[in-house]
Amino acid sequence: MAAAIKPWHNIPVISFLLLGGQCAACGTGISWRYPTVELATGLLSLAAAMTFGLSWELAGALAICWCLVALTGIDIDTQLLPDSITLPLLWAGIAFNVFGVFTDLQSAVVGAMLGYVVLWSVFWLFKLVTGKDGMGYGDFKLLAALGAWFGWQSLPLIIILSSFVGAAIGIILVVAKRQGRDIPMPFGPYLAGAGLLWLFFGDWLNAYYLTTVGL
Known about the structure:
By secondary structure, the chain is an all-alpha fold. It has helices spanning 14-18, 33-52, 56-78, 83-97, 105-130, 137-150, 155-175, 188-212. α3 packs antiparallel against α4 (83-97). It is globular, with a radius of gyration of 19 Å. The model has no long low-confidence stretch (mean pLDDT 85).
């Protein structure tokens, strides 16, 4: 017979610590993944509330944060970015920007199209040169979703940031021999991380980038 879950067993992070990382009923260990996701989601939500205040920007920021946290975990586990999250995220970005919440509608639509086309083009160029798949179709849709939320102006830096961090971590893992060179590495978490950086620091990052390149 299943044991009843007490209310305090469902308090994010705190219940994990109070229970010593074990199930209260059977003593089975609980993965650190759960409190890590809870803590990350809570901190991002708090940061969004402090950044945007009570506004439509906050509602959008919370949706972005929650979806990107979920996509990161799923991609790490399965190397898949499910349409059930990426496509609603894309259309939600278009819907919010009908009212100009994060950018104007034209920039959002162009951002969605370019976000998809850029990685689609990289995929096929890599495949033609190497005969291998360099990334999954879910990556196209995730970048399209970020373009829909933040506009096409965000795409260059999001691509640069995600590619740089992904390459750096990939090299570290290979050197440390924790991952073989031929073993595929999910790109979604790096796109998600770059998207979160743009959400909170987009204006500063864009100004710094334009100053650096002399524009």
